Predict the structure.
Amino acid sequence: MTCRISLCVNDETYSLDVDTDWTLLKVIREQLGLTGTKEGCGEGQCGSCTVLLDGKPVNSCLVLAVDVNGKSVTTIEGLAEKGKLHPIQTAFVEKGAIQCGFCTPGMILTAKGLLDRLPSPTEEEIRLGIAGNLCRCTGYAKIIEAIQAAAPLMRGKAQVG
Amino acid sequence: MKHPEYHEPKTIQEACSLLSGFGKGASILAGGTDLVIQMKRGRLRPEHLVNIKKIEGLDAIHEEGGGFRLGALAKIAEVADHAGLRRAFPLIASAAESIGSLQIRNVATIGGNLCNASPAADMAPGLLALEAEVRIAGPQGSRTVPIEDFFVGPGKVDLRSGELLAEIFIPGAARNTKMLFHKLGPRRAMDCSVVSVAVAIRLDRSTKRCEKARIALGAVAQTPVRAREAEKIVEGKGVDQSAWPEIVEAIRHEICPISDVRGSAEYRYETAANLTIRAIESLVNSLEE
């Protein structure tokens, strides 16, 4: 069975025909060609498929496309504004929190979700917040530093914007 | 593989009618964090997906007569973040927090956790210790069942054809009730419990006597279980160290863990008893504060 869904991705609305057992991840990568979102485990364990669904981090490999009709998704491609990197992206670059880069899109979007909810997280809250995102390269230290560095920048952004 | 038919009932009646009609060929889509994995692994091949999230009112969390009513579709993240619920029943909030990751909690539902009926279901021990009830909606109307009777076996709950879990009701606890949930596992997130324990005890501050004890354990039997023998010992003999050996013995009688990849049966026997004692001790110490 095919269903037609309307989905807003990175501020653009799409009308898509999807099979009933397609995941949101499949739609993002294969129908929309947005390959920044990765498939690591396909089972919601690694977090590399993380996107923001109506502003909240979710594993897109576990969300069925038919289930997101009328909703809004942000992928990593949608984070930068007019070519300018988001403070979290800048912090990841500056702190050396990226090695192979595979976990990075999911990690950054989870960080955004976390900082939206907890603007001044403790290290403990950051560690628990990214518990659903695995990184095989960095050992997480720089990732945590990057999120700590980004937090005040995002608070500043919130005041200005 | 044939793709499933997809349905979005707008009312409980519509949902129950569809589920009745489709029988075993239908799966309920709530959060989907268990269902989608099972579909991907080929364990479940539903002919029909019945998405119940378009039914209004099944996700509300609100206070009622000192207790709380939770819609089955309340997300685990919402259960964890609800301030009033946390104040009234901190062990429910901490159980919710212990589940999965931020991403999982934003999608998974409390009803799904219960209906998936893993013996290690993290929302179960706390609800058992608080003597919660579940309201089940069906083609013939509603029925209410004590949560202890809802779990029938591994992966099995008391839902007949056409029925769905609508609500969980947690009755108000007496004011001097102390409660705690502990989940044992290698990580602080993303793990299935090796053993979990929920304790709710009503302690008299001055006499240290226990007026009421409820102890529930997860991942140590075919379903989450109440440790009734141990409860009686705590109520009769109190929480003093002298009662501990009997409590340990009672716990060991009342569970029947298996050996699996997460731990041996003997490890679970040992840790279930130890965690229960530690929980009781911790709650007694918190009385001093």
Chain B is about 35% helix and 25% strand. Chain B touches chain A at residues 3-6, 29, 32-33, 36-37, 39-40, 49, 51, 53, 77, 100-104, 106-107, 187-190 (CB under 8 Å). Chain B has a mean pLDDT of 96. The CA atoms of residues 3 and 47 of chain B lie 7 Å apart.
